[in-house]
Design a protein that fits this description.
By secondary structure, this protein is α/β, with parallel strands linked by helices. The protein has two domains: 193 residues, D-Maltodextrin-Binding Protein, domain 2, CATH 3.40.190.170; 126 residues, D-Maltodextrin-Binding Protein, domain 2 (3-Layer(aba) Sandwich), CATH 3.40.190. The strands form three sheets. It has a five-stranded mixed beta sheet, sandwiched between helices. A four-stranded mixed beta sheet has the order 8-5-9-11. A two-stranded parallel sheet has the order 6-7. Strand 1, helix 2 and strand 2 form a beta-alpha-beta unit. The radius of gyration is 23 Å and the shape is globular.
């Protein structure tokens, strides 16, 4: 009788341990370079909330904003090596690994947001994403995170192309940005995103460009009060994950994660649209001057640069024209 009780107790202990192990959630991390108040960070928290709810607590996502895990390139390399699970940011950060994504950083390639989305959903981009996964072990799980257009901020007003001549221009660590702004006549200087405010304040650079949705939160307008609405880039943001990490998830958690990333992308897009006018009015009230100008001369320079880049092998020959054909 006593041995029977011992067996029952042993079975109960084993069951309790098994249930405890089974109940332990899968935890994955995601990093971004955006500030804690940026729509991207808010959307990542929304993604974590959706994933936890849909999985019944089995999938938890830890969010690390404001470059806590390093700059964008360091985080992408971390995802490639598997030391970081996921990254959220502009897709062109990956262009140094998959050169055809340089097209996303080539100013004036896309006419509008719909044109960009046509490319992102096209077989052309699907092939690029698959190449990224196979060669670097990084899987794109969502690329519907649409942000506001990129614009030019400067310490002095820029009304025309000639006003850019010789100014010190902050650019990110993306070669295509360097090439574009050299072609437009500036003297580009690579400065980390988190150091840009100070660089403008100290006169290390005279101008920068960036997505509209970051300007108010990062307070760049305080030190560069002239904003020219160039809308030169329509930024595609993505969420990527180490492919081995993704494959290690149970199939239903893979599905839930992808769904959460896409739903959060829609949330991110709507946040950006909702805050655009609000941010603009707030910056105007604090002394910011907004400038609109003829962009035709800028577009001409960018088209000439595309031809050079294809000749150099920086882009697949015919890629620029293929993207233009998507609108016809």
């Amino acid at each position: 009788m006593k041995s029977g009780r011992i067996i029952v107790l042993t079975v109960l202990v084993i069951l309790a341990i098994s249930m405890s192990v089974a109940a332990k959630p899968t935890v994955i991390s995601v990093g971004t370079i955006e500030s804690t108040t940026n729509p991207a960070t808010l959307a990542l928290y929304k993604m974590a909330e959706i994933a936890e709810e849909k999985s019944g607590g089995r999938l938890k996502i830890e969010v690390y904003p404001a470059s806590q895990l390093g700059n964008a390139i360091a985080q992408l390399e971390g995802v490639m090596m598997g030391t970081q699970d996921m990254f959220q940011g502009a897709a062109e950060w990956a262009a140094q690994f998959v050169p055809d994504w340089n097209i996303l950083a080539l100013a004036f390639t896309f006419e509008d947001q719909d044109h960009l989305m046509e490319f992102l959903r096209s077989p052309i981009n699907e092939e690029i994403k698959e190449r990224y996964r196979q060669e670097f072990g990084v899987r794109v799980i969502a690329d519907n995170w649409n942000r506001t257009p990129r614009v030019l901020l400067s310490t002095k007003p820029v009304f025309r192309l000639s006003d850019l001549s010789g100014i010190k221009m902050r650019v990110p660590e993306i070669e295509m940005y360097l090439r574009v702004w050299e072609a437009l006549g500036t003297k580009p200087t690579q400065v980390a995103w988190g150091e840009t405010y100070l660089a403008l304040q100290q006169g290390i650079v005279d101008a920068m460009e960036g997505p509209f949705d970051t300007l108010y939160g990062m307070k760049f307008y305080e030190v560069a009060p002239y904003i020219t609405l160039t809308n030169h880039l329509l930024t595609a943001c993505f969420v990527v994950i180490n492919d081995n990490t993704f494959q290690s998830l149970e199939p239903d958690l893979q599905r839930i994660l992808v769904e959460a990333a896409h739903e959060a992308g829609d949330y991110f897009t709507n946040l950006n649209l909702d805050t655009y006018e609000q941010d603009m009015q707030q910056m105007i009230s604090e002394g910011t001057v907004f400038i609109q100008t003829d962009m035709a001369p800028f577009r001409k320079v960018a088209r000439e640069l595309a031809i050079k880049l294809e000749a150099e092998g920086k882009l697949t020959a015919g890629l620029f024209d293929a993207i233009q054909e998507l609108r016809k």
